[in-house]
Amino acid sequence: MPATEESRDEALYVLTAVLLTPAQFPSVLGDDYPEACAALGLEPYDTGYGLVLGQDGGGARWTVVTDDVSLVAIAIATWDCGMEYALAIEDRTVVASLPGWPLAVAVAAPGVPAPHDPAPDPEPGGDASRAPLAPPDSERWGPAQRRLGADEIALQWAIWREQVDSDVTFVSPGEKPHGGVRRVLEEARDYLDSPPPLGRIRSAFASGDARTLRADGPGWSMVARTDDIAFVLLDDAPGEVLPVGRGPELPGLLTALDKLAVRPH
Fold first, then answer.
1. Where is this region: Disordered (predicted)?
2. pTM > 0.70: yes or no
3. Rounded distance, CA 57 to CA 60, Å?
4. What is the mean pLDDT of residues 217-245?
């Protein structure tokens, strides 16, 4: 799916693309939309951006930021349906060209050298003068890994929920849960009085009338179904997934958070 320009050297061979909007952004970049934008040196405009990850003719990794969000959304939807779509970004819509990729990409463009970071730009302030973007180290635990773990739970909700039903003991908010879980619930409740930065609470479709709710905060992530339980991940609990039962408090909290959440258009 190449997006070609006037010559092979200037071509961008598109490998994948993601949205960077208040309702949908690579959570590896931050706990909320402004933080994710700041990680890429972008202004957090409400309309958002599209991130196009590809290689140039020499094989170098580039992340091209475009303000043509609709075009990128169409491409992603088409690919998700298993169809081909040649995503071609017009120069006038390019906001920035950043060296490297912020996400792990398992494929490479055919007929060009293997993916590698571009050489530093000798011109001050040039596109390649900043440190190349790179996915987080999978061998260590930190905020990025915690958020990626929450992403995985949201994608594989049924599998994680089945584990709770079968062999995982979980606590209710009314049972004096794990200290970290109590802190998460208290901080999430504080959002009802002091709304957090845009994108820190997000709501997506689930089955029936339910919503999949995602909330993040300093050192924590929570994934929940508005009609079910929640899962909590903490920076200071590496690799642990802490299920939180419905109890008397959780349903009302999830409903209230969902009303504050940003939703995809």
1. 112-143
2. yes
3. 8
4. 94
pLDDT for res 11: 84
181, 237 Cβ separation under 8 angstroms: no
| pLDDT value, residue 4 | 39
Closest CA to 48 of 29, 71, 24: 24
Q: Hey, CA dihedral for 5, 41, 265, 205, is it positive or negative?
A: positive
Q: Which amino acid is at 54?
A: G
Put residue 239 in one of left, alpha, beta given phi > 0 → left and psi -120 to 50 → alpha: left
Q: Are the C-beta atoms of 244 and 170 separated by less than 8 Å?
A: yes
Count of Cβ atoms closer than 10 Å to residue 18 Cβ: 19
pLDDT number for residue 179: 76
| 3-state SS track over the chain | CEECCCCCCCCEEEEEEEEEECCECCHHHCCCHHHHHHHCCCCCCCCCEEEEEEECCCCEEEEEEECCHHHHHHHHHHHHCCCCCCCCCCHHHEEEEEEECCCCCCCCCCCCCCCECCCCCCCCCCCCCCCCECCCCCCCCCHHHHHHHHHHHHHCHHHHHHHHHHHCCCECHHHCCCHHHHHHHHHHHHHHHCCCCCCCEEEEECCCCCEEEEEEECCEEEEEECCCCEEEEECCCCCCCEEECCCCCHHHHHHHHHHHCECCC
CA nearest to 53, candidates 127, 2, 128, 126: 2
Mean pLDDT of 112-127: 80
- Relative to beta strand 2-3, strand 220-225 is unpaired
Question: Closest Cα partner for 265 from 6, 16, 21?
Answer: 21
Q: How far is residue 119's CA from residue 132's CA, in Å, rounded to a whole number? A: 10
